[in-house]
Amino acid sequence: MRTDEQPERRARRPRRLPRRRSDRVEALTTWVLCGLVAATLVATALVGGWVHAFASDRIRAEQSDRRPVPAVAVADAPVVPGDGGVGPTYGAVRWTAPDGTERAGSAQVPPLTKAGGAVTVWTDDRGDVVAPPLGSEFPLVMTATSVVFTLLAGFVLIVFAVLGERRLLDRLRAAEWGAGWRRVEPVWSGREDSGRR
What is the value of pTM for the model shown? Predict the structure, then answer.
């Protein structure tokens, strides 16, 4: 038999079962939830990058305008009990500002510092006492905190979306099952031909 004499064969596609409305809605909402998860991950990366850049810029700014200055304790520093032992101690100190003037004020000093003891204080460009610049761990801590909170917010949003999806699908399926039962019940119970309704 030549190939031109062979009966025409159609490419058979597998038959697909009809899909219920709830199945189509579930497929759509699953894609939406997958998109929500992807959006949460992208938002987390963007927020983490932005917070890290902001924290790094803040550290650079603080390190550029704050400098350690040698100072002398004017009085003995007391020991202040804190939550985990000794808390931060502040005492009267004297230092020289960048313009050469003698300054006096209160600054954080090590506990049990004696009067006349050498301490280091941090000053700004005008010579005023300021807090020490943030440590190098600040960007990492801020980034980790922002990532955790962004992921947590995304997780809560996704959980509520899944709960809403389940509730919607349960209602759709109950309506479909009810409609199917109204079609099948008369035949199944034998009431179809009896005329009773």
Answer: 0.65
